[in-house]
Specification:
CATH architecture of one domain: 3-Layer(aba) Sandwich
Family: Belongs to the threonine synthase family.
Shape: globular
Distance between the termini: 28 Å
EC number: 4.2.3.1
Number of strands: 16
Structural class: alpha/beta
Radius of gyration: 20 Å
Cofactor: pyridoxal 5'-phosphate
Number of helices: 19
Mean pLDDT: 95
Catalytic activity: O-phospho-L-homoserine + H2O = L-threonine + phosphate
InterPro entries: Ser/Thr_deHydtase_PyrdxlP-BS, Thr_synth_N, Thr_synth_N_sf, Thr_synthase-like, Threonine_Synthase, TrpB-like_PALP, TrpB-like_PALP_sf
Protein backbone atom coordinates (compact mmCIF):
# COMPACT_ATOMS: atom_id res chain seq x y z
CA UNK A 1 0.00 0.00 0.00
CA UNK A 2 1.31 3.40 -1.03
CA UNK A 3 0.10 6.78 0.17
CA UNK A 4 -0.16 10.13 -1.60
CA UNK A 5 -0.65 13.69 -0.38
CA UNK A 6 -3.91 15.55 -0.92
CA UNK A 7 -1.85 18.45 -2.31
CA UNK A 8 -0.05 16.40 -4.90
CA UNK A 9 3.63 17.23 -4.56
CA UNK A 10 4.90 15.27 -1.53
CA UNK A 11 6.59 11.91 -2.23
CA UNK A 12 4.61 8.67 -2.20
CA UNK A 13 5.28 6.77 1.02
CA UNK A 14 4.60 3.38 2.52
CA UNK A 15 2.60 2.91 5.71
CA UNK A 16 5.57 3.02 8.10
CA UNK A 17 6.87 6.30 6.72
CA UNK A 18 3.38 7.84 6.60
CA UNK A 19 2.79 6.92 10.24
CA UNK A 20 6.04 8.48 11.41
CA UNK A 21 5.66 11.58 9.20
CA UNK A 22 2.10 12.54 10.12
CA UNK A 23 1.65 15.59 7.87
CA UNK A 24 2.89 15.52 4.27
CA UNK A 25 5.85 17.74 3.39
CA UNK A 26 3.70 19.84 1.01
CA UNK A 27 1.24 20.67 3.79
CA UNK A 28 -1.30 18.08 2.64
CA UNK A 29 -2.69 14.98 4.32
CA UNK A 30 -1.81 11.45 3.33
CA UNK A 31 -4.45 9.12 1.91
CA UNK A 32 -4.15 5.69 0.27
CA UNK A 33 -3.29 5.81 -3.42
CA UNK A 34 -6.49 3.81 -3.98
CA UNK A 35 -9.21 2.58 -1.65
CA UNK A 36 -9.13 -1.18 -0.91
CA UNK A 37 -12.51 -2.88 -1.09
CA UNK A 38 -14.21 -5.91 0.43
CA UNK A 39 -16.70 -8.21 -1.23
CA UNK A 40 -20.09 -8.84 0.35
CA UNK A 41 -18.83 -12.30 1.34
CA UNK A 42 -15.80 -10.80 3.10
CA UNK A 43 -18.02 -8.36 5.02
CA UNK A 44 -20.46 -11.14 5.94
CA UNK A 45 -17.52 -13.13 7.30
CA UNK A 46 -16.92 -10.35 9.87
CA UNK A 47 -20.13 -11.25 11.71
CA UNK A 48 -19.32 -12.71 15.08
CA UNK A 49 -15.63 -11.80 14.97
CA UNK A 50 -13.99 -10.31 18.03
CA UNK A 51 -13.02 -6.66 17.82
CA UNK A 52 -9.34 -7.61 17.48
CA UNK A 53 -10.04 -9.99 14.60
CA UNK A 54 -12.26 -7.41 12.90
CA UNK A 55 -9.46 -4.85 13.28
CA UNK A 56 -6.93 -7.19 11.67
CA UNK A 57 -9.27 -7.90 8.74
CA UNK A 58 -10.06 -4.23 8.12
CA UNK A 59 -6.57 -2.78 8.58
CA UNK A 60 -4.54 -5.49 6.86
CA UNK A 61 -4.71 -3.88 3.38
CA UNK A 62 -3.54 -0.51 4.74
CA UNK A 63 -0.41 -1.84 6.50
CA UNK A 64 0.71 -4.11 3.65
CA UNK A 65 4.46 -3.84 3.22
CA UNK A 66 5.02 -2.60 6.78
CA UNK A 67 3.45 -5.26 9.05
CA UNK A 68 2.43 -8.84 8.44
CA UNK A 69 -0.85 -10.23 9.77
CA UNK A 70 0.70 -11.81 12.86
CA UNK A 71 2.46 -8.55 13.82
CA UNK A 72 -0.74 -6.56 13.31
CA UNK A 73 -2.76 -8.95 15.45
CA UNK A 74 -0.22 -8.80 18.27
CA UNK A 75 -0.34 -5.00 18.26
CA UNK A 76 -4.17 -5.00 18.26
CA UNK A 77 -4.29 -7.46 21.16
CA UNK A 78 -2.00 -5.18 23.16
CA UNK A 79 -3.91 -2.00 22.24
CA UNK A 80 -7.41 -3.28 22.93
CA UNK A 81 -6.45 -5.44 25.87
CA UNK A 82 -6.41 -2.23 27.94
CA UNK A 83 -10.13 -1.55 27.35
CA UNK A 84 -12.49 -2.17 30.24
CA UNK A 85 -15.27 -3.80 28.20
CA UNK A 86 -14.82 -7.23 26.61
CA UNK A 87 -16.51 -6.03 23.40
CA UNK A 88 -14.12 -3.01 23.27
CA UNK A 89 -16.82 -0.83 21.60
CA UNK A 90 -20.16 -2.30 22.71
CA UNK A 91 -23.47 -1.49 21.02
CA UNK A 92 -26.47 -0.53 23.15
CA UNK A 93 -30.05 -0.38 21.87
CA UNK A 94 -32.01 2.74 22.85
CA UNK A 95 -35.31 2.09 21.04
CA UNK A 96 -36.58 0.32 17.93
CA UNK A 97 -34.05 2.05 15.62
CA UNK A 98 -31.62 4.10 17.72
CA UNK A 99 -28.36 2.56 18.92
CA UNK A 100 -25.31 3.82 20.80
CA UNK A 101 -21.82 2.56 20.07
CA UNK A 102 -19.80 3.22 23.22
CA UNK A 103 -16.30 4.22 22.21
CA UNK A 104 -15.13 5.35 25.65
CA UNK A 105 -14.03 2.16 27.41
CA UNK A 106 -10.32 2.85 26.85
CA UNK A 107 -7.90 4.17 29.48
CA UNK A 108 -8.79 7.89 29.05
CA UNK A 109 -12.57 7.44 28.59
CA UNK A 110 -12.82 8.82 25.04
CA UNK A 111 -13.06 7.48 21.50
CA UNK A 112 -9.55 8.75 20.75
CA UNK A 113 -8.18 5.75 22.71
CA UNK A 114 -9.39 3.37 19.99
CA UNK A 115 -6.86 4.81 17.57
CA UNK A 116 -4.18 6.23 19.82
CA UNK A 117 -3.53 3.08 21.85
CA UNK A 118 -2.62 1.44 18.56
CA UNK A 119 -0.72 4.46 17.24
CA UNK A 120 1.54 4.51 20.30
CA UNK A 121 2.46 0.88 19.68
CA UNK A 122 3.04 1.56 15.98
CA UNK A 123 5.43 4.39 16.83
CA UNK A 124 7.31 2.11 19.22
CA UNK A 125 7.49 -0.73 16.69
CA UNK A 126 8.68 1.44 13.81
CA UNK A 127 11.17 3.47 15.89
CA UNK A 128 12.73 0.25 17.18
CA UNK A 129 13.80 -0.41 13.59
CA UNK A 130 15.53 2.97 13.31
CA UNK A 131 18.27 4.88 15.08
CA UNK A 132 16.18 8.03 15.47
CA UNK A 133 14.15 10.06 17.96
CA UNK A 134 10.64 11.34 17.28
CA UNK A 135 9.13 14.60 18.51
CA UNK A 136 5.34 14.28 18.47
CA UNK A 137 3.43 17.55 18.25
CA UNK A 138 -0.33 17.70 18.77
CA UNK A 139 -3.23 20.06 19.38
CA UNK A 140 -6.27 19.06 21.38
CA UNK A 141 -9.72 20.39 22.05
CA UNK A 142 -9.89 17.97 24.96
CA UNK A 143 -9.71 14.22 24.38
CA UNK A 144 -6.91 13.74 21.84
CA UNK A 145 -4.34 15.09 24.28
CA UNK A 146 -5.04 12.72 27.14
CA UNK A 147 -5.35 9.72 24.83
CA UNK A 148 -2.08 10.50 23.04
CA UNK A 149 -0.23 11.16 26.28
CA UNK A 150 -1.46 7.90 27.80
CA UNK A 151 -0.36 6.04 24.67
CA UNK A 152 3.13 7.58 24.53
CA UNK A 153 4.10 8.32 28.15
CA UNK A 154 7.39 6.67 29.02
CA UNK A 155 8.00 5.22 25.57
CA UNK A 156 11.57 5.22 24.31
CA UNK A 157 12.70 7.54 21.50
CA UNK A 158 9.61 9.79 21.73
CA UNK A 159 8.87 13.21 23.20
CA UNK A 160 5.27 14.44 23.07
CA UNK A 161 4.23 18.11 23.17
CA UNK A 162 0.48 18.67 23.45
CA UNK A 163 -1.12 22.09 22.99
CA UNK A 164 -4.54 22.80 24.48
CA UNK A 165 -6.55 26.05 24.64
CA UNK A 166 -6.23 27.45 28.17
CA UNK A 167 -9.54 27.37 30.04
CA UNK A 168 -11.44 25.76 27.15
CA UNK A 169 -11.26 22.09 28.08
CA UNK A 170 -13.05 20.44 30.99
CA UNK A 171 -11.15 19.99 34.25
CA UNK A 172 -11.16 16.22 33.84
CA UNK A 173 -9.78 16.55 30.31
CA UNK A 174 -7.04 18.94 31.46
CA UNK A 175 -6.02 16.86 34.46
CA UNK A 176 -5.86 13.67 32.40
CA UNK A 177 -3.10 15.41 30.42
CA UNK A 178 -1.32 17.54 32.99
CA UNK A 179 -1.04 14.96 35.78
CA UNK A 180 1.02 12.59 33.64
CA UNK A 181 4.51 13.45 34.86
CA UNK A 182 6.56 11.16 32.60
CA UNK A 183 9.74 12.95 31.49
CA UNK A 184 8.82 12.69 27.79
CA UNK A 185 5.41 14.39 28.25
CA UNK A 186 5.14 18.16 27.83
CA UNK A 187 1.81 20.01 28.09
CA UNK A 188 1.31 23.55 26.82
CA UNK A 189 -1.76 25.67 27.58
CA UNK A 190 -1.93 28.30 24.86
CA UNK A 191 -3.67 31.63 25.29
CA UNK A 192 -6.05 31.12 22.38
CA UNK A 193 -8.53 28.70 20.79
CA UNK A 194 -8.18 25.14 19.54
CA UNK A 195 -8.00 26.51 15.99
CA UNK A 196 -5.00 28.61 17.09
CA UNK A 197 -3.39 25.48 18.54
CA UNK A 198 -4.05 23.50 15.36
CA UNK A 199 -2.63 26.32 13.22
CA UNK A 200 0.53 26.39 15.38
CA UNK A 201 1.03 22.66 14.89
CA UNK A 202 0.71 23.03 11.11
CA UNK A 203 3.11 25.99 11.17
CA UNK A 204 5.75 23.91 12.96
CA UNK A 205 5.45 21.20 10.32
CA UNK A 206 5.69 23.85 7.60
CA UNK A 207 8.96 25.15 9.11
CA UNK A 208 11.21 22.73 7.23
CA UNK A 209 14.36 23.41 9.27
CA UNK A 210 12.55 23.01 12.58
CA UNK A 211 10.61 19.93 11.45
CA UNK A 212 13.74 18.15 10.26
CA UNK A 213 15.83 19.14 13.27
CA UNK A 214 13.36 17.61 15.70
CA UNK A 215 11.96 14.88 13.44
CA UNK A 216 8.36 16.00 13.94
CA UNK A 217 5.39 13.67 13.80
CA UNK A 218 1.68 14.06 14.53
CA UNK A 219 -0.93 12.30 16.64
CA UNK A 220 -3.87 14.42 15.55
CA UNK A 221 -6.18 12.87 13.00
CA UNK A 222 -4.03 14.42 10.29
CA UNK A 223 -2.02 11.21 10.90
CA UNK A 224 -3.46 8.56 8.58
CA UNK A 225 -2.87 5.69 11.03
CA UNK A 226 -5.39 7.25 13.43
CA UNK A 227 -8.14 7.34 10.84
CA UNK A 228 -7.32 3.81 9.70
CA UNK A 229 -7.91 2.49 13.22
CA UNK A 230 -11.25 4.30 13.43
CA UNK A 231 -12.56 2.67 10.25
CA UNK A 232 -12.71 -0.62 12.15
CA UNK A 233 -15.63 0.19 14.44
CA UNK A 234 -17.89 1.05 11.52
CA UNK A 235 -17.40 -2.46 10.15
CA UNK A 236 -17.77 -3.96 13.64
CA UNK A 237 -21.13 -2.26 14.24
CA UNK A 238 -22.33 -2.76 10.67
CA UNK A 239 -21.68 -6.50 10.78
CA UNK A 240 -23.54 -6.84 14.09
CA UNK A 241 -26.58 -5.04 12.67
CA UNK A 242 -26.85 -7.08 9.50
CA UNK A 243 -24.32 -5.80 6.98
CA UNK A 244 -23.88 -6.47 4.14
CA UNK A 245 -27.52 -7.59 3.82
CA UNK A 246 -28.93 -4.31 5.07
CA UNK A 247 -27.55 -0.77 5.28
CA UNK A 248 -26.82 1.02 8.53
CA UNK A 249 -26.65 4.78 9.20
CA UNK A 250 -24.24 6.47 11.60
CA UNK A 251 -24.63 9.77 13.42
CA UNK A 252 -21.26 11.24 14.28
CA UNK A 253 -20.67 14.21 16.59
CA UNK A 254 -17.72 15.91 14.99
CA UNK A 255 -15.72 19.09 14.78
CA UNK A 256 -12.54 18.09 12.98
CA UNK A 257 -14.21 15.65 10.53
CA UNK A 258 -11.82 12.80 11.35
CA UNK A 259 -14.25 10.38 12.97
CA UNK A 260 -16.86 10.79 10.26
CA UNK A 261 -14.25 10.59 7.49
CA UNK A 262 -13.37 7.13 8.84
CA UNK A 263 -16.99 6.23 8.08
CA UNK A 264 -16.52 7.53 4.54
CA UNK A 265 -13.52 5.23 4.17
CA UNK A 266 -15.62 2.28 5.38
CA UNK A 267 -18.22 3.11 2.74
CA UNK A 268 -15.51 3.30 0.07
CA UNK A 269 -14.36 -0.15 1.18
CA UNK A 270 -17.81 -1.60 0.59
CA UNK A 271 -19.68 -1.29 3.89
CA UNK A 272 -23.32 -0.47 3.02
CA UNK A 273 -23.80 2.83 4.87
CA UNK A 274 -27.18 4.45 4.25
CA UNK A 275 -26.06 7.84 5.54
CA UNK A 276 -23.33 9.49 7.57
CA UNK A 277 -25.00 12.19 9.65
CA UNK A 278 -22.52 14.96 10.46
CA UNK A 279 -23.69 16.35 13.81
CA UNK A 280 -22.25 19.73 14.79
CA UNK A 281 -22.88 22.11 17.65
CA UNK A 282 -23.27 25.87 17.08
CA UNK A 283 -19.69 25.93 15.74
CA UNK A 284 -21.23 24.69 12.52
CA UNK A 285 -18.69 25.15 9.72
CA UNK A 286 -19.17 21.54 8.59
CA UNK A 287 -22.97 21.85 8.52
CA UNK A 288 -22.72 25.08 6.53
CA UNK A 289 -20.21 23.53 4.13
CA UNK A 290 -22.26 20.41 3.41
CA UNK A 291 -25.67 22.05 3.31
CA UNK A 292 -24.89 25.39 1.64
CA UNK A 293 -21.31 25.22 0.35
CA UNK A 294 -20.20 27.83 2.90
CA UNK A 295 -16.86 26.68 4.31
CA UNK A 296 -15.96 29.97 5.97
CA UNK A 297 -14.29 30.50 9.31
CA UNK A 298 -16.28 32.26 12.02
CA UNK A 299 -15.57 32.95 15.67
CA UNK A 300 -15.40 29.95 17.98
CA UNK A 301 -18.24 29.91 20.51
CA UNK A 302 -17.37 28.03 23.75
CA UNK A 303 -20.00 25.38 24.53
CA UNK A 304 -20.70 22.47 26.87
CA UNK A 305 -19.27 20.22 24.13
CA UNK A 306 -15.74 21.69 23.98
CA UNK A 307 -14.23 18.98 21.79
CA UNK A 308 -16.45 20.29 18.98
CA UNK A 309 -15.63 23.98 19.47
CA UNK A 310 -13.72 24.13 16.20
CA UNK A 311 -13.96 26.30 13.09
CA UNK A 312 -11.27 24.76 10.85
CA UNK A 313 -11.83 21.04 10.26
CA UNK A 314 -8.50 19.60 9.16
CA UNK A 315 -9.81 16.29 7.85
CA UNK A 316 -12.35 17.94 5.56
CA UNK A 317 -9.43 18.33 3.15
CA UNK A 318 -9.38 14.57 2.65
CA UNK A 319 -12.99 14.59 1.47
CA UNK A 320 -12.37 17.63 -0.72
CA UNK A 321 -9.50 15.72 -2.35
CA UNK A 322 -11.88 13.02 -3.55
CA UNK A 323 -14.50 15.62 -4.53
CA UNK A 324 -11.80 17.30 -6.65
CA UNK A 325 -11.30 14.02 -8.51
CA UNK A 326 -8.08 13.41 -6.55
CA UNK A 327 -6.46 16.33 -8.38
CA UNK A 328 -3.78 17.34 -5.87
CA UNK A 329 -2.62 20.58 -7.54
CA UNK A 330 -6.22 21.78 -7.93
CA UNK A 331 -6.98 21.09 -4.28
CA UNK A 332 -3.69 22.70 -3.22
CA UNK A 333 -4.72 25.92 -4.97
CA UNK A 334 -8.13 25.82 -3.28
CA UNK A 335 -6.64 25.22 0.17
CA UNK A 336 -4.07 27.98 -0.23
CA UNK A 337 -6.91 30.32 -1.14
CA UNK A 338 -8.81 29.17 1.96
CA UNK A 339 -5.78 29.69 4.18
CA UNK A 340 -5.43 33.25 2.86
CA UNK A 341 -9.11 34.29 2.86
CA UNK A 342 -10.54 31.93 5.54
CA UNK A 343 -13.32 31.10 3.12
CA UNK A 344 -13.99 28.39 0.54
CA UNK A 345 -17.11 28.10 -1.59
CA UNK A 346 -17.97 24.48 -2.41
CA UNK A 347 -19.63 24.14 -5.83
CA UNK A 348 -23.11 22.63 -6.08
CA UNK A 349 -21.83 19.63 -8.08
CA UNK A 350 -19.43 18.70 -5.28
CA UNK A 351 -22.12 19.16 -2.62
CA UNK A 352 -24.46 16.93 -4.59
CA UNK A 353 -21.80 14.22 -4.79
CA UNK A 354 -21.18 14.45 -1.04
CA UNK A 355 -24.93 14.40 -0.31
CA UNK A 356 -25.18 10.86 -1.65
CA UNK A 357 -23.54 9.73 1.60
CA UNK A 358 -23.49 12.72 3.97
CA UNK A 359 -26.18 14.78 5.64
CA UNK A 360 -25.64 17.33 8.39
CA UNK A 361 -27.45 18.83 11.37
CA UNK A 362 -26.69 21.79 13.64
CA UNK A 363 -27.65 21.08 17.25
CA UNK A 364 -27.95 23.94 19.73
CA UNK A 365 -27.62 23.77 23.52
CA UNK A 366 -31.35 23.32 24.20
CA UNK A 367 -31.68 20.42 21.74
CA UNK A 368 -28.54 18.83 23.17
CA UNK A 369 -30.02 18.91 26.68
CA UNK A 370 -33.31 17.44 25.45
CA UNK A 371 -31.38 14.50 23.95
CA UNK A 372 -29.52 13.95 27.22
CA UNK A 373 -32.79 13.94 29.14
CA UNK A 374 -34.47 11.59 26.64
CA UNK A 375 -31.56 9.13 26.86
CA UNK A 376 -31.79 9.15 30.65
CA UNK A 377 -35.58 9.12 31.05
CA UNK A 378 -36.56 6.83 28.17
CA UNK A 379 -33.53 4.62 27.55
CA UNK A 380 -31.93 4.65 31.02
CA UNK A 381 -28.59 5.80 29.61
CA UNK A 382 -26.48 8.72 30.80
CA UNK A 383 -24.61 10.29 27.89
CA UNK A 384 -22.16 13.15 27.55
CA UNK A 385 -22.87 16.39 25.62
CA UNK A 386 -21.01 15.35 22.46
CA UNK A 387 -22.84 12.03 22.24
CA UNK A 388 -26.11 13.90 22.89
CA UNK A 389 -25.46 16.10 19.86
CA UNK A 390 -25.06 12.95 17.78
CA UNK A 391 -28.22 11.43 19.24
CA UNK A 392 -30.24 14.61 18.61
CA UNK A 393 -29.15 14.61 14.97
CA UNK A 394 -30.06 10.91 14.67
CA UNK A 395 -33.51 11.48 16.17
CA UNK A 396 -34.16 14.41 13.82
CA UNK A 397 -33.10 12.46 10.73
CA UNK A 398 -35.61 11.85 7.93
CA UNK A 399 -34.07 8.50 6.96
CA UNK A 400 -36.20 5.46 6.11
CA UNK A 401 -37.44 4.17 9.50
CA UNK A 402 -36.29 0.65 8.64
CA UNK A 403 -32.63 1.76 8.69
CA UNK A 404 -30.97 1.46 12.12
CA UNK A 405 -29.01 4.52 13.19
CA UNK A 406 -25.90 4.13 15.32
CA UNK A 407 -24.81 7.20 17.26
CA UNK A 408 -21.14 7.26 18.14
CA UNK A 409 -20.89 7.83 21.91
CA UNK A 410 -17.55 9.53 21.98
CA UNK A 411 -16.82 10.19 25.66
CA UNK A 412 -17.71 8.93 29.11
CA UNK A 413 -20.32 11.23 30.70
CA UNK A 414 -18.19 11.77 33.82
CA UNK A 415 -15.73 13.77 31.72
CA UNK A 416 -18.44 16.44 31.49
CA UNK A 417 -20.15 16.04 34.85
CA UNK A 418 -21.40 19.62 35.17
CA UNK A 419 -23.19 19.57 31.80
CA UNK A 420 -24.69 16.13 32.45
CA UNK A 421 -25.93 17.16 35.88
CA UNK A 422 -27.55 20.32 34.50
CA UNK A 423 -29.47 18.31 31.92
CA UNK A 424 -30.41 15.21 33.90
CA UNK A 425 -29.97 15.92 37.61
CA UNK A 426 -27.52 12.99 37.71
CA UNK A 427 -23.85 13.52 38.58
CA UNK A 428 -21.91 10.75 36.79
CA UNK A 429 -18.91 9.38 38.62
CA UNK A 430 -15.51 8.60 37.18
CA UNK A 431 -14.65 4.89 36.90
CA UNK A 432 -12.39 3.56 39.61
CA UNK A 433 -9.49 3.24 37.18
CA UNK A 434 -9.40 7.05 36.93
CA UNK A 435 -9.60 7.46 40.72
CA UNK A 436 -7.43 10.05 42.42
CA UNK A 437 -7.30 12.32 39.37
CA UNK A 438 -8.16 15.44 41.37
CA UNK A 439 -5.47 14.81 43.98
CA UNK A 440 -2.59 14.43 41.52
CA UNK A 441 0.03 17.08 40.86
CA UNK A 442 -0.32 19.00 37.59
CA UNK A 443 2.50 20.18 35.33
CA UNK A 444 2.12 22.38 32.26
CA UNK A 445 3.43 25.58 30.67
CA UNK A 446 1.27 28.57 29.72
CA UNK A 447 2.41 30.25 26.50
CA UNK A 448 1.06 32.81 24.03
CA UNK A 449 -0.34 31.50 20.75
CA UNK A 450 2.78 32.55 18.86
CA UNK A 451 4.95 30.26 16.77
CA UNK A 452 8.20 31.69 18.17
CA UNK A 453 7.18 31.00 21.75
CA UNK A 454 6.07 27.43 20.99
CA UNK A 455 9.10 26.53 18.89
CA UNK A 456 11.39 28.04 21.51
CA UNK A 457 9.79 25.92 24.24
CA UNK A 458 10.11 22.76 22.13
CA UNK A 459 13.73 23.56 21.27
CA UNK A 460 14.60 24.08 24.94
CA UNK A 461 12.83 20.92 26.09
CA UNK A 462 12.95 18.19 23.43
CA UNK A 463 15.73 15.79 22.63
CA UNK A 464 17.07 16.80 19.22
CA UNK A 465 16.64 14.32 16.40
CA UNK A 466 19.47 11.82 16.23
Amino acid sequence: MQYISTRGSAPRLGFEDVTLAGLASDGGLYVPESWPSFSTAEIAAMRGLSYVDTAVAVMKPFVAGALDEAELKKLCEAAYGRFSHAAVVPLKQLDHRQWLMELFHGPTLAFKDVALQLLGLLFERFLARRDTHLTVIGATSGDTGSAAIDALAGRAKVDIFMLHPKGRVSEVQRRQMTTVLAPNVHNIAIEGSFDDAQALVKAMFADADFASRFNLSAVNSINWARLMAQVVYYFYAGAQLGAPDRPVAFSVPTGNFGDVFAGYVAAKMGLPIAKLIVATNVNDILHRALSAGDYSVGTVTPTAAPSMDIQVSSNFERLLFDLHGRDGPALSASMKGFEASRRLDIPQAMRAEAAALFSSTRVDADRMQLAMRWAHDKAHEVIDPHSAIGLAAAQDSDLDPSVPIVTLATAHPAKFGDAVERATGIRPTLPARIGGLFERQERYAVLPAEIGAIEGFVADTAAAAV
